[in-house]
Amino acid sequence: MDSLRASRYALLRTFRRDGRPVDTPIWFHLDGTTLVFRTKIGPKTKRISADARVELRVCDYKGRVPDAAPTLTGRAAVLSGDDAEQANRQLHDRYGWQYNLVPLLPLPGVHNVDAGLPWREKWQRVRNPNVWPESAIVRVDLTS
Fold first, then answer.
1. What is the DSSP string of 123-142?
2. Is the N end or the C end of the chain the one with fewer CB atoms within 10 Å?
3. What is the spatial distance between Cα 26 and Cα 38, in angstroms, rounded to a whole number?
4. What is the C-alpha separation between 31 and 142, in angstroms, rounded?
5. pTM confidence score
6. Is the pLDDT of residue 1 over 80?
7. What pLDDT is stored for residue 111 in this prediction?
8. What does the pLDDT read at residue 13?
9. Neighbouring-strand partners of residue 24
10. DSSP per-residue codes, 19-63
């Protein structure tokens, strides 16, 4: 878990209904054995709702995992209400101004789902300290 604490990115593995894995690099906040991250409401949140098992490994911003990176396992759940807002603040504290800006930018080799929003909407989201519309905050309770 020490390698995860030292990393800015983690590769999240969720599982489709047929068991096939789907990997996604994420920004996260780790507090003890609880990790939180923000994602767009959609396929990932559906996979988590259907199968709460997840795996995490440290990675770089493109999702490349070092050879010796250990795999951590956990159970994920989508948060709501005050729990989601508190976790969102923790993410803001960890990543600062980048937290609301980087997901809105088209970056080479990175799939940012909000990069295609109109500039007016991007400006509103950059200044929004709360959980974004169509976004979810997910908690992962690490088991190993």
1. HHHHT--SPPTTEEEEEEEE
2. C
3. 8
4. 10
5. 0.93
6. no
7. 80
8. 97
9. 12
10. S-EEEEEE--EEETTEEEEEEESSHHHHHHHH--EEEEEE--TT-
